[in-house]
Amino acid sequence: MWPQPDCPGYPDYDRNAGVPCWQTKCGGPAVPPASCWNGTLLCQHGTDECRVNAIEACAAQLAPSLAIPFAACAESAYPDGGPACADAMGLDWTAIESCADSEQQTYEMAVAFGKATAAFKPAGTPTIALNGQIVDDTADLTAAVCALYAGPSKPEACGAVFAAEDDELDAVPGGLRGGAPSVLATAA
Predict the structure, then answer these.
(1) Residue 170: left if φ>0, alpha if ψ -120 to 50, beta else—which one?
(2) Whose CB among 108, 113, 114, 143 lies 3.0–4.6 Å from 173's, allowing a Cys bridge?
(3) Which ranges of the chain would DSSP assign to H, the alpha helix?
(4) pTM exceeding 0.85
(5) Positive or negative, the Cα torsion across 150, 158, 90, 57?
(6) pLDDT digits (tens, 9 = 90+) for 71-82
(7) Distance between alpha carbon 56 and the CA centroid of its chain, in Å?
(8) Are 92 and 100 in contact (CB under 8 A)?
(9) What is the mean pLDDT of residues 108-119?
């Protein structure tokens, strides 16, 4: 979030008043004012979160197919797991770190992710969406993922969830709501 001078809590991160004000001013389908993306980016959990977000975004940019596994690994060893996770996945840590150290690159990625999140208007954090559909009930997230998976063969984890044939999967579990086609997971 980029604090806005006309929002409560400015210039600090204010989850209770500043974030809703920013969302009202900068979120939704309308084109928000440029000021929504100016100034110092603040992360809810401080500078470690901003740094890990940059590392995860850079890893995703460099190896899109490993974005989720890398983020899961990095989050499990927060905040210092990046190098070990990159090594375990065969990723170039030097390239990831160089990207994360680039103020221009991390700013551009933060703005792109911020605009996508603002347009999506998440109700709170964390918000989990699969293929543009918000998952309201995360009690069985694996079932929701497996129901929406459209790849050539279901991942092994889906076998335990669905013993039936794919053509019997006519209901999407997880309480999903419609949205634009995309994958989005947010934690502000």
Answers:
(1) alpha
(2) 143
(3) 18-26, 47-62, 67-76, 82-89, 93-101, 103-120, 141-148, 156-161
(4) no
(5) positive
(6) 999 999 999 999
(7) 10
(8) no
(9) 83
